[in-house]
Please model this.
Amino acid sequence: MADSRETFLVNAFITGWPVKHSRSPLIHGHWLKQFGIDGSYRAQAVTEADFPAFIQALKDGSSGFRGGNVTIPHKELAFRLADRPDELAEELGASNTLWMEDGLLHATNTDGHGFTANLDDRHPGWDRSGRAVIFGAGGASRAVIQAIRDRGISEIHVVNRTLARAVELADRFGPKVHAHPVEALAEVMSGAGLFINTTSLGMEGGEVPEIDFSPLASGAVVTDIIYVPLKTPLLAQAEAQGFPIVDGLGMLLHQAVPGFEKWFGRRPVVDNVLRDLVISDMEKH
Model:
């Protein structure tokens, strides 16, 4: 008979440096309460110097955690320290979700899942277009490129102020991905059905350049991975020009689902109750 203690007091974490502003404890705490699971999900601030020891304690069981999430700046090191990273993590060279299984530390990256699941939820059919434009070539763009490529988008154009960074992504993710300087933005937008901002432009309501979205295909979707503010200046521009928009909050919510299932054994659903809970928290801070 299974030890009943395995059903209770399951503990998971979110770690980063800093991590105190993470909304992941709110998300997972909501699901724990919803399912009536006697467990916890806690923020653990860990410096880069202390991160290897934190992972060792996870592996040997002394930490008391079954697994957890990893955020900036530890995603790359988490991947390297894992015993069994999956194919998604291998290609990205970064992990955001860890769990112990059969005495080994497994790792994956759920950011791409979060991105596509959010679009599926908020604008079904977004993937019918074969052409996408990604504005920005920073670390956040990797999982997005991987996810839409694997979903079947056949032409992905990465536009970045520093061309070399866009070229690096094209080299990493294969022949469907093309690199361009920012001066080529209007040209590569022509006929595209999906526009994705992966830059930090507009975060916390900061200034963004004026973008003419008219070269996009009629009905093209414009989305942003930033979710503070919920409607970024870039999304507001696109909406004013008549394009459907999808905010970035759902990416945060949906990326949390696979990890919760790994640690706590139940697959939660992202619904408006959770979304409203997080929006309410955002409005308080």
